[in-house]
Write a structure and sequence with these properties.
The strands form 10 sheets. The protein has a 5-stranded mixed beta sheet. Strands 13, 14, 15 and 16 form a 4-stranded antiparallel beta sheet that branches. The protein has a 4-stranded mixed beta sheet with strand order 23-20-27-25, with no helix packed on it. The chain is flat, with a radius of gyration of 47 Å. β31, α4 and β32 form a beta-alpha-beta unit. It has 7 helices and 34 strands. By secondary structure, the chain is of the alpha+beta class. Among the domains are: 70 residues, no CATH class; 32 residues, no CATH class; 33 residues, no CATH class; 86 residues, Immunoglobulins (Immunoglobulin-like), CATH 2.60.40; 142 residues, Glutaredoxin, CATH 3.40.30. The longest helix is centred in the N-terminal third of the chain and has 28 residues. It is 15% helix and 34% strand.
Length: 534
Amino acid sequence: MKRMTQIKQLLLFGMAFALAAGGAALSACGETHTAHTFGEWSVTAPTCTEEGERVRTCTIEGCNETEREPIPALGHDFDLGTVTTPATCTEAGVRTRTCRRCKATETASVSHLNHDWDGGTVRVPATCTSGGMSLFTCLRCGDSEERPTDPIEHDWEIKRVSNPDCEHTGLETYTCRTCGKSEEHTLEALDHLWRTGETLREPTCEGTGLRTDTCARCRKSEDHEIKALGHNWEGEYTIDKKPSFEGPGEKSYHCTRCEERNGITEIPMLEVNTPIEYEFRLLRNSGARLSAAVSITVRDEEGTIAAQGGRSSFEGGVFKALLLPKTYTVTLTDLPEGYTALGQYSVEAADPVCRLYLTASPIPTPADGGTRYQVGSVLHEFTYPAQNSTTGELTLSGILGEKRMLLINFWYIDCPNCVSEFQGLERVYQKYKNIAEVIAVNPSDTMTAISDFSMTYRLTFPMVRDTVRLSAMFGVTGYPTSVVIDSEGVVCEIFTGATPEERFESYFAAYTAQGATQSAARVETALPGRKYEF
């Protein structure tokens, strides 16, 4: 770049000089011409190290004005070179390069090779207590050097002096067969292996119990305390005393194990002309809250409509109305697809909370392209044919006809989080496969790749290629995504991200219980291995 700048400066200087000289030439030539007419360039070629030049002369008679322009030197065009002095193990070599134009040469250093040592020859053998010495020779130049070697390991012979038991340590001795060195190792006590024995005192909600346990190893017996059970409060309050027009009532939460009550609340007495708040709750048949809305009609004993509400009247599955204290009948219409209600419900002033229980069953017709599932939706019938499944044809009705729960897992082969959760899911599946099913739904890979993956990772639950387009119906954008379907075909949980085995265990334990339809909050707080009660 610097050289090009210098050339441009020289050219500009030459042009200025030519103009000045041209003026002088015009003066010298008189008025014979007003501009030069230059002939062809005459070129003196540049070399590798020296500049060339081109020159041209004005062709008008009597004018000998010339222009000169330098041509930059070419620079050397060196070849790849040849090794003129080979490198050795300890000394550098020389590589010589030659210019293809002018035959000038230049040299460069070639790094030394380092020794190519053999495997060594033992001069002094190593023992258990001291190192040895070996001679290493370079295969290239013949140089040699001695190096120390580490001591070899002891050849231990183990003898058991005494065995450990539940309360005492044991002892082992180690003797080297080569050098005779001895060491002693203490074996930790085994601890007791308690087996549950006779219960001497049953635990209560607030009191501990007592039982005698026996060790399976040493047969020692010992009394162990059993933790108090703690109160198991009912999910709904009990009307202990109904309010009347003469006096207030009382309600509370009862322990299912004992007679203890909690949250004792007074119910105001009824007044004939003073409305009270009636509450109508939409519930699954298991008692879980249902957020979907329906149309509701409330009639008094004469059949007159006292309150009415459409879908927009329900908030979070609850409809409230101020009504005079009477007994009313309730009917539901416009239920979400897949749900069924009783023909009629009743509610009275003494307990103005009306529990509207709905049941569900899978919708027998396939879903259309615009279907979008969310928590609370009822699934349509679907079929994965045998050629798109690792275990044969799969239908929703066939699965829920035999199992209490279905977990759908959306995944693809190149998703590391998907792959990471499969071994834990497989272990949980093996535990619950008689009462629960798993379908791993892949929306992108070929059936051949899916089958190969299943065999490689030894997965026994069904894996399918998503010809049904369930992933689109659930709006899946993150992988892996898992969906819990209960025995009635209702979407109960949707969760995204790699799921640990303990969380899968919690969901399977909760949803395979008889009649179980639990919320995510209940399952999340459950401990793995806990006995679930509903």
